[in-house]
Structure to design on (262 residues):
DNA sequence: AAAAGTACGCACCTTTTGGTAACCATGTAG
DNA sequence: CTACATGGTTACCAAAAGGTGCGTACTTTT
């Protein structure tokens, strides 16, 4: 895992610099599941089970782990209702909502341009065998 | 690596669906180095060595590998000048330039909000030891 | 003659990531 | 009394990602 530099405040933010916190944050946000979770949380708070159903293929472990990481960087807020059986909701923070717009813009762009992106692509054909 | 589904054309694009090509594309774009390379290529074509100097910490292997992947999904074009010594330039395609805007928006957002994102964060302090 | 720059490819090995399965506590449904 | 749902945690292991170092081939510089 990427390590933060010793001296945070002296850096001017720059994702191209190896030791800049911005680079660490980019690596968190661009993790396999992070953008999907932020995207899924777009218009309402969701519970663990709901997120599992929306994001096809995520495991319980990775969902929990990624949510904890997103909490750590202030993008997601966890609401534990303290009931039995457990009821926990996840919500985007204000920062999270702000970033969500950038992420959704990317996700929608990819969806819209999907066919162009995979067109005329011999090596992608080769990858089709396993799944 | 994520595998593409058997039947591409029958899918409506949806990053949340495990087998949708959009999900594969998202995983490519959100790879550790992909967004940095696309971001770096913003206003002019760059050579291998220039990219290495701009993107601190990338290895030759990962640079080449990621450039090949970006070529595969039509985001980057490779121009080999066929000279000796070798002169090769990398350029964003039209698709690449279009996506670059979304990526840059994210990168700049992260840089702008960096201090807020890492503020008040005990566990990030713990990660500061190694690098 | 030797070294350095150019843009890689390949093999090897380590680190990181992520999946599976088992477990926990509790309450409700059948 | 048993099964199931809830929202997790933990240990174990396999796979993927990624770094290091070496080799290539040719030219220019020293």
């Amino acid at each position: 895992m990427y390590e933060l530099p010793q001296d945070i405040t002296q850096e001017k933010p720059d994702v191209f610099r190896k030791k800049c916190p911005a680079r660490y944050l980019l690596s968190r946000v661009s993790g396999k599941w992070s953008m999907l979770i932020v995207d899924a949380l777009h218009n309402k708070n969701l519970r663990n089970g709901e997120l599992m159903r929306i994001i096809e293929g995520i495991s319980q472990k990775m969902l929990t782990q990624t949510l904890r990481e997103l909490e750590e960087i202030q993008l997601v807020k966890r609401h534990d209702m303290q009931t039995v059986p457990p009821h926990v909701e996840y919500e985007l923070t204000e920062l999270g909502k702000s970033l969500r717009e950038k992420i959704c813009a990317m996700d929608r762009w990819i969806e819209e341009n999907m066919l162009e992106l995979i067109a005329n692509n011999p090596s992608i054909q080769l990858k089709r065998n396993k799944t």
